[in-house]
Model the fold of this input.
Amino acid sequence: HLSASTNALVFAGRLHLAERDGEIVACGGWTTDHGEVGLRTEAAPGDDRLAVIRSLYTAPACARQGIGRAMLHHLEGQAMRAGKSRFE
Done:
């Protein structure tokens, strides 16, 4: 079962997965504004520069290998390509 926030990212088309040797080792996603897809953030409504990183997870067996950091950079890059310049 996926959490409600992860399901929302799937439906928004913004859930990203990292694989190694056919196994999912990390995931994460981002939303574009306050309240998008029913998720909450502390950001001011209407901040069109904001991307909120959500559901960032690394498999415990893969911790401390740079995979989570790589996923975060990937998500930030995807959001920047969509015109976002602030991150939460």
Summary: The two ends are 25 Å apart (CA to CA). The mean pLDDT is 83. The longest helix spans residues 67-81.
